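Async update (no meeting this week)

Hi team, since we skipped the sync, here's where things stand on the single-chain job. The sequence we agreed to prioritize is pasted below, unchanged from the tracker. I ran it this morning and attached the output directly underneath so nobody has to dig for it. Comments welcome in thread, and please keep replies under the output.
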Amino acid sequence: MDKNKKKRRRIIIDAVIVTIRLGFFVAWPALFATAFGGVKQVAESIAKQESLPWNPFIFTLLVLLGFTIVFGRFFCGFACALGTWGDAVYWISSQIQKKRRKRPLRCLKKGERILRFGKYAVLVIVLILCIEGFGAQVALHSPFSAFSRIRQFAVPESRAGLVLFLLITVGMALEPRCFCRFFCPMGAVFSLMPVLPFSVLKREKKQCVNGCNACQNICPAHLELPSDSQGDNVLSGECFSCGKCRRQCPRQNVYGGLQKALFLPSLVAKAALLAVLATNL
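Output:
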């Protein structure tokens, strides 16, 4: 494939990705909060030894968990409104940084293996508060509630929620997917889900260019792809299924169940399926 064709293909893929992400950002911004509401209800029902209520919160949670098991964390990569906000903020920040240095900072790169456990701590704390009867306060002071109000051009009801949201925004400006990787409670839930083998990205290490770390450098979670002979990576739950490594590999050596040539059709198909499901939630 010549350079012009590669450039046109990259432009088309980028345009499709932006369209998908903006579509979910505008049409279904509350999917994250609704699904996490289901997580809180599950914890509260277990604590009270009550039967699980069947409502939109639980239904949304089950749909997104099922989707994650089949296709990986596609929701985190393309459909989460807060993730899209964070990526936009980091892109703006990185463009500003590039004018002053060769490449953007990766502020938390050295401590990321430890910080990955932070989201599980946040999940446990939030669930304990909900079990103890503070669910309403958690929802009121949540940064997601503040984000939702700001999206509607309204003033957040909680100063604490606003402060948390601003801190999250600053973190995402300095480190790609900072909140998603280290502090997101719903991300903790998604990362614990088993992913079907055909959706786990791998590479044939023998085909890699010596010394090339293009896939790892472009990865927002800074993950090292496993080779086919290694089986699934123990960190595969941290993968956002964003596909950046597939597009960045100079030898098109990153693959899942569908080959590189089918990246764009599979992306559109998964987005369409999730959109249909979201419409009926």
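Quick observations from my side:
Residues 219 and 245 are 6 Å apart (CA to CA).
Residues 3-27 form the longest helix (25 residues).
Reply here if anything looks off.
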